[in-house]
Amino acid sequence: MMFRTKICRIVASVCIAMHVYAAALAQDVGFSQFYDQPLLRNPALAGIFTGDVRLTASYRNQWQSVTVPYRTFGLSSEIKFPVQVMGRDLTLTTGLQLLRDVAGTSEFSKTQVMPALNLSIPVSANSFLSVGFMGGLMQQRFDPSKLVLNDQFVTNSDGSFTVLPFSGQVFTNTSVNYFDLSTGITYSTSVNENVDLYFGAALFHVNNPKVGYVEDKQIILNKKFAINAGLSARVSDRDELIVYGDYFGQHKKDFEYVGISSFQAGLLLRHDISVYEDDDKGITAGVLYRLDDAVIPVIQLHLNKFTVGTSYDINISKLSVASQLRGGFELTLSFKSLFQNRQGDLRSVVCPQFGGRRK
Predict the structure, then answer these.
(1) What InterPro entries has UniProt attached to this entry (predicted)?
(2) Which of 4, 43, 65, 108 could disulfide-link to 142, CB 3.0 to 4.6 Å?
(3) What fold is seen in the domain 2-342?
(4) CA separation for the pair 307, 323 (Å, rounded)
(5) Cα separation of 330 and 260, whole Å?
(6) Model-level pTM?
């Protein structure tokens, strides 16, 4: 019975690994509360918020109900600086995206250190065009001693199986390092004093980095094209409706579509607890959705400069039977602020507030 349980867990682990790998091709490592890690959506979304500085930390724990959990840690920072170019007032945002992902039994890990720059250019009194770039180092590695390979399964005389403790296969390379480059563009506008919106597009893995562990195998990371949109609308004095949407599609060097794509969207409603403008307290609740993968209830608490968010993935993919609908838990902590000596410099940057009170 214990052996059968072990085999079932091994099979489940393999199935989940294949599922997650296919998803990763389309959207790389990501978070359910994707709006809190904007650089993973589009480098040109850096700085599209009200304030001077934003720091966000995210933690995700997935598939713990089925196998060894997949854990993801994310940390991002954005700082805005007013600049002048040829006599025009622009906003330059410097950003940094840190990511650490450890997946399953093999401890397949991905570590990402990606600086970013985004320049917001005014095109009218209430509209901005933002162009962003992000590039940095990536490392992928795995632990072969944690794998159970085919030569470890031995058939016994009675037809049962024995799992040997070690494999005879030798891995000469268990890690790969590469440089990755992404770029994007975003248009943001204020329709009126109550409605802000943006839409944009991005291209990830512009340089098609080599990611293979075997030198004589040409394995590259295909380009990923993204389309992003967001809407923030004040529906009453104390309530705000927020909508997000992202599409990702994987493409080859010649931009031929390879048939791997993903779509995610969110609908949230924020309610301001305090009626005072300088006392930014509120609560946000809603639901997020990843096509053919998960339905995700989410709740956020806003305490002036800090926001805490939590969500849980309800799995609706083909693995829902094995997972019993249990996907992953996620927690985020965000900090936003204005520098005291620049209180007026950045208020003209138009962007969806994403749960923030309008000033």
Answers:
(1) PorP/SprF_Bacteroidetes (IPR019861)
(2) 108
(3) Porin (2.40.160)
(4) 30
(5) 25
(6) 0.83
